[in-house]
Structures are given as C-alpha cells and as structure tokens.
Design brief:
Elements lengths: L7 H8 L5 E5 L5 H14 L8 E5 L2 H14 L8 E4 H11 L11 E3 L1 H14 L9 H13 L12 H20 L1 E3 H14 L1 H10 L2 E4 L7 H11 L4 E6 L14 H9 L4 E5 L7 H11 L20 E8 H18 L6 E5 L5 H10 L4 E3 L9 H14 L4 H7 L9 H14 L3 H10 L5 H22 L3 H11 L2 H7 L2 H24 L7 H11 L13 E5 H4 L4 E6 L16 H15 L2 E15 L2 E4 L4 H4 L6 E5 L10 H4 L13 E4 L3 E9 L6 E6 L3 E6 L3 E3 L1
Parallel strand pairs: 1-7, 1-8, 2-3, 2-6, 4-5, 6-7, 9-14, 9-16, 10-12, 10-13, 11-12, 13-14
Antiparallel strand pairs: 14-15, 17-18, 17-21, 18-19, 19-20
The chain binds a DNA duplex (15 and 10 nucleotides) through α4, α8 and α24.
Length: about 700
DNA sequence: CGGGAAAAGCTTTTT
DNA sequence: GCTTTTCCCG
C-alpha cells in the first residue's frame, strides 16, 4: 500500500478524513511526499476523481514536480487534475471564461518589465513628473492594491499622494484594457472578481473541486487566500501545507497570518505537525530550533531526527571578506578531495552582491561553480524583442509590444514620431497600431518618417500573412529573419552578440518542443506559446550535467538541500540586513531566513563572517551576526585565524581537477580577441577539447581549445 | 544612431 | 567603489 514508507504523522495527514487540514510541515519533514501521497489517497481510497482535485503551488517547478510524482504513484492519469501555480490555474480559468471576465479572447500577459514600461508610459501620458511619481513606486502601489483585491474604484486614498497614485492605477487599468493585456496579478484578481460576481460559474467550480490542496501556504497573500476560499466554498475539503518558520516573503506581500486565519475560518480544521526531519544532523537541528525559538507568535514546532548528532557547526571569523572567501574555498577543496562532490556543496548568502568575492576566490582556486538566480531565458533582451514581434502578430493592439519593436532593430523612427503616435492614440482612445494607421492615412508624417513607418506597417502585415501558413517553430524562425533581429544582433560585436544569436536560435527549438508537446487548451498555437513564455519564465537553461559548487541567495535556497552548506556573511548589518534591523517583524523574518539557510544543510554547516568588509565602497567593521549568538555555544566549533590573511597558493600543483589535454581548470589563458581569462570547465580532449573560459572583459564563453593559448 | 560621460542605484523574487 | 542605466552630443 502507498502508506508503507511514511511515518505516523505523515500517515495521519495522508489518511485524514475529508474536511479541513492544516499540515505544519517543518523543513525536511517530507512535505512534498505527504502532498503527493494525499492526492493518491484521495483518488485510490476516497475514490475522488482526479477531475475533482485542485492543487496549488507557487512555482512552476514545484507544480511540475508534484504532477510527475503523483503520476508515478498513481495508476490513473492525473491529466484532469488542476495542478499548477496560482497564476497558471488562473490563466487556465480566464482562457475558458474570457467572456465572463470581460477580456478579449486572445488577451496577452504582461510580465513585470512590460508592466513597468506601461506604468511609466501612463505616468508620462498624465503629464506627471517621473521624479515625483517614480514608476517603480507606482507599479508597487498598483500591485499592492490588486493583492488586497482592490480595483481603482474601491481604493480609498489616504492622502494627496495616494490620490495621484490611484489616478495612475486607474489610467494604467484603462491602458491595459485598451491593449487587451493583463498583468500577473490581474490573472488572480480577474479570476477572483469573475467568480465573485458570477454565481453560476462559482457554483460550477465549487461543485467541481471537492478537494483543494495548497503548498507553501505561509507564502500566500491576501488575494490568494481570498481566491482559494472562493474556489473552496463552504462544502469542499481544503488541505493546506506550510511552515510559519519558513515564511521569508513577507516583504512582497505574503501574509504569515493566513495560517492563523485558516484556523479561525475553519475551526474544525485538524492540525497535523510534521516534525521528524530526514535531512539534517541532530546538531544542525538543535541549533536551528534554538535560533527560531527566539521568534514570537510561532505556531510551535520542534524538529527532531533519529539520526546521529554529527559534526559541530563550524563558525569562521574572517579578517575581511576575501579571507572569508578563501576559508570557504579551502574547505571546499579539502572536502572535495575527500568525501564530497562539488555539486554537494553550496554557498549561501544574503544578497547577490556577495557572490563576487566568492566567485573570484573560487576562480583563483580553479573550482568550477554555478551561480543561481541570474537572468532567466525568457527575460533576456533579445528574447523579449522576438516575443514582442510574435505578440504584435497575434494582436496588433498590444501596445507594450508595439513600443518595444517600433524601432528595434533601428529603422529610422525617432522619439518625436513615436510621441505623436502616442498622443494620437491617447486622444482617440485607440491602440498605438490603430493610431499609426490613422495618422498614415491623414498624411500626418514628414516624408522620411512616413517611409520608415510604412515599411514597418508593411513588415508586420507581410509577416503575419506569411506566418499564417507556417507551423509554430517555422513561424518563429521566419519572424526572426524577416524582422531583421538576427541581422541586428549579428552586428553586435563580441561575445554578447554571439550569445544573443544562440539564444534566438534556441527560441526556435523552444517553439518546436512546445508544439511537439501539444497544447491542451483550444488556443491558437502562437497565443498558447506566448502565454507559456510569459508564465514559465524558463528555468535558467538546464545546462548539461556538471559538477559545480552552487552559489545562491538564502531566498533561492528555500526548498533545496545540500550535504555541505556554507552560510557566508553572518554579520550584523548584512545579515540581519541593516534595512530590517529596526523593525521587529522584519528582524524575525531575517531570523527565519537564517533558519531556512541552516536547515538546508544535511551533514556539515559552516557559518562565517568578516570583521572588515567593503560595502558600498567603504570599509566597514561589523559585529558577528546576532544569529550566531543565538546558537548554543556547545554546538559550535569556532575558528579564528588572526595572524594574517590566507592567500591562495598557485593552483598549478595543489589542485588539478579533471585536467585533460592541453588546458586545466583554473588555468590562466589568452584569446586573441577576448583577451585574458580563466578556464572554468573542460570537455573532451585534444583538438576537439572544448573549454569554458571566464574572460576578464567579455564574460564566460565556451570555445574550442585550439583558439586559446596558455599563459 | 551610437558611443562615451554622467548619474543613479545598492536586500531578498516568482509569476 | 562598482556596475548599470540614462543622457547628451557629434
């Protein structure tokens, strides 16, 4: 039976009778297992049809993983099950009910960058001063209102400033409507509002979803909670899984109180605690428990393991940040030579800026590493350009896309010309595209601008005509060439242009793969692909398997685990961050962040700090983080090197990982065009050897070895 | 339109 | 301080 592998608390959660359950799942307590087994149980034992189940997560990654795992446990297809992110499921809902939601059938989704541009344009159109009303703040304001479930007419401005922001919100909303686009938060808000105002639809969905499950519930915001309650209605069972101690997204609207609110709203909800930890040593858990016990208002939870206590936690006091980095790198080297693969070790830090010193140290030692959390595929400039062309093909009214490509690649359409199009669009309350066509008819433009504009209009029309006949991937390929994007980026010199071309080529592959996998919705393939690109920002390319040390922020480490964890920069002002220090609530969130970081470690945990650190250009002295003092001293092994800063030894003799052929990881090399660099990875041998090199001037690039010279 | 100089950030991030 | 974005001029 499916329960064999579960402990008692886990089984209790899986077998719970229909009704409401709150599962408090500590770090490493098998939360995903419980969720997936619960769903399997519902289907196989409670005989609930997959059709009647709704499971919500926050990231696509989590949703995909859940679906895969369920399908491997279950003997029934999970196809009919609604598993996805809040945004993904809302999108599905709105595609099915666009009429009820008052949307055009082929509405497009704005990502945050599009949203930002749109907000800025609205501010300018209202003749407001960007310095007085920064687009960033306006964007934040708009999203905050939406996350409280408020449309412009429902917002009660607090002061004069708030009134202006409200005005911007209202104008932004109109602009979105005109363009037939909706932003991320709109996906949820429109779903919520539609369901709220349409009793028939509400009844339909409430009778459909008999069982609802939510993962990472501590990260839900007000709107998501309301969304969930509306889908759940009075009758259906809801299981929420979360951990108040791992709530680290309060700053972006997550309401930890939703956990308490759930117990109030559903007083019969059964509370189940998963406290047995399968990840970390006893020592790590004891330390983490003691630390988090400092927080107030917890729901209460104490992690335990029946495993060994393991090693003490190593605390290293570095002289400065470079010394700290060298300590970490030295340890990594030692551990790599004895017991651990590089990919089993992670360096976690509070803020991205910290990665540089660490990277430099790793490079000097020739240790391959990977930094997580960079620019994702669909966020890249060239990809966004390409998608904008596709969007304009799909929907001429898509103003943000129009703005993006009207002069990209440059075709001699200047700012003044665009401004007059904008003004006409605003005055006539029509899309930029329609405004352009009208103005052309009126012979509004000077001859030179007119020629350029006509060729743009022709280009888009020809493109969409020709594209009609083509398969999705051919469509993308055709567009890339016809638009001149390929040519444009080919001209971009150096490394960047080449990478961009590769990325654009990859888009054709992505489109091909997408159409192969088949779309479930009855949407045109192009529209479906665009929605996919907007919602699935594309995990940073799944690079071929390489054994690399992993670098990431504490936030992005959530949900992951590593045998060895280095928590760098444990200093006051940095961690806890100085912007959080005077707000008790924010400080508790920092502490939870520390708790999250510590509980990522399976066997070895290192925490380090620097006495002097260069920050914002100044040398600053910080005390060790208060979090270090909140760990029982008997669990800590403290190392201090006071004598002098430990410099790295030249890597030539000390460390030669996987060195084959002519080049060695860590070796300094010279390229005729790209200049000096360091070898990061090697692949193959002899003439065919491929070498990944980080160049001082142009970034990282994979090259054939014969183009390089050793130094 | 593109390159260089000046100016502005500078916590954490997913959709 | 360092990096990224914006701005201005040839």
């Amino acid at each position: 039976m499916i329960l064999n592998s579960l402990n008692e608390a886990q089984q209790e959660a899986v077998r719970a009778p229909l009704g409401h359950q709150l599962v408090l799942a500590g770090a490493g307590s098998g939360k995903t297992r419980v969720l997936t087994h619960r769903i399997a149980w519902l289907v196989e034992v409670e005989k609930i049809s997959p059709f009647n189940i709704l499971a919500v997560t926050f990231t696509n990654k989590a949703a995909n993983e859940m679906r895969t795992r369920i399908e491997s446990i279950l003997h029934v297809s999970a196809k009919n099950m609604w598993i996805g992110t809040f945004h993904g499921l809302s999108h599905r809902f709105l595609r099915a009910h666009w009429q009820e939601a008052g949307l055009p059938q082929l509405f497009q989704i704005l990502d945050s960058d599009d949203q930002f541009r749109m907000v800025r344009r609205v501010i300018n159109a209202l003749n407001l001063d960007e310095d007085k009303f920064p687009p960033k703040e306006a964007q934040w304001f708009i999203n905050a209102q939406k996350e409280e479930g408020l449309e412009p007419h429902e917002v009660k401005p607090r002061d004069l400033n708030g009134q202006m922001f409200l005005k911007i919100y209202a104008a932004y909303k109109e602009a979105c409507q005109r363009a037939g686009v909706i932003d991320f938060t709109d996906l949820l808000l429109k779903t919520y509002k539609t369901l709220l105002s349409n009793a028939e639809l509400r009844a339909h969905y409430q009778s459909r979803f008999r069982c609802l499950l939510v993962d990472e519930f501590q990260d839900t915001n007000t709107l998501q909670y309301a969304w969930l309650k509306l889908f759940a209605g009075e009758e259906n069972s809801v299981m929420i899984v979360g951990d108040d101690d791992q709530s680290i997204y309060g700053w972006r609207g997550a309401k930890i109180e939703n956990l308490h609110r759930f117990s109030k709203d559903y007083p019969n909800a059964k509370v189940i605690r998963l406290e047995q930890n399968y990840r970390s040593t006893g020592t790590i858990l004891k330390a983490a428990n003691t630390l988090i016990a400092q927080n107030s208002g917890r729901m209460g939870k104490n992690l335990w393991t029946d495993g060994k206590d393991g090693d003490k936690i190593t605390v290293y006091s570095g002289f400065n940040e470079t010394d700290e980095a060298f300590f970490i790198v030295n340890r990594i080297r030692e551990l790599h030579q004895t017991d651990y693969a590089l990919k089993d070790m992670a360096i976690l830090y509070r803020s991205n800026a910290q990665s540089r010193v660490l990277e430099e140290a790793l490079m000097q030692f020739g240790i391959p590493y990977r930094v997580y959390g960079g620019l994702r595929y669909f966020d890249r400039q060239e990809i966004r350009d390409a998608l904008a062309y596709l969007r304009i093909i799909a929907n001429r009214a898509d103003d943000p896309a129009f703005e993006r490509i009207i002069n990209t690649p440059t075709r001699g359409i200047g700012d003044r010309t665009i401004t007059s199009i904008r003004e006409h669009a605003k005055a006539a309350n029509i899309s930029l595209w329609d405004a352009l066509e009208q103005l052309l008819k009126q012979n509004f433009f000077a001859a030179r601008a007119e020629t350029a504009l006509l060729s743009f209009v022709n280009l888009i029309s020809t493109m969409s005509d020709r594209a009609l006949m083509l398969e999705l991937d051919k469509k993308v390929e055709y567009m890339l060439n016809a638009s001149g994007l390929i040519e444009h980026y080919r001209k971009e010199k150096g490394e960047k242009g080449l990478t961009r071309l590769e990325n654009l080529e990859e888009l054709v592959n992505a489109a091909h793969q997408f159409s192969q996998e088949g779309v479930e919705d009855d949407m045109p393939p192009l529209a479906a692909f665009l929605a996919y690109a907007a919602l699935e920002s594309g995990s940073e390319q799944a690079e071929a398997y390489t054994d690399c040390v992993q670098l990431m922020t504490l936030h992005s480490a959530k949900g992951l685990e590593f045998p060895v964890v280095f928590l760098a920069g444990c200093e006051e002002e940095l961690f806890p961050h100085y912007l959080c220090m005077h707000d008790p609530k924010a400080l508790e969130e920092e502490r939870r962040l520390c708790y999250v970081g510590m509980t990522r470690a399976m066997r070895k945990l290192y925490m380090s700090y620097a006495e002097v650190r260069r920050m914002h250009g100044k040398e600053v002295y910080h005390r060790p983080s208060r979090f270090l003092h909140e760990i029982p001293v008997e669990l800590i092994d403290e190392i201090r090197f006071r004598a002098k800063v430990s410099r790295p030894q030249p890597i030539t003799n000390s460390y030669t990982p996987q060195s084959q052929g002519k080049f060695r990881i860590g070796q300094e090399v010279v390229h005729r065009i790209f200049g000096q660099g360091t070898v990061l990875e090697t692949e193959g041998d002899g003439e065919d050897m491929k070498v990944k090199v980080r160049f001082a001037k142009v970034g990282t690039k994979v090259l054939i070895a014969s183009y390089l010279e050793g130094k």
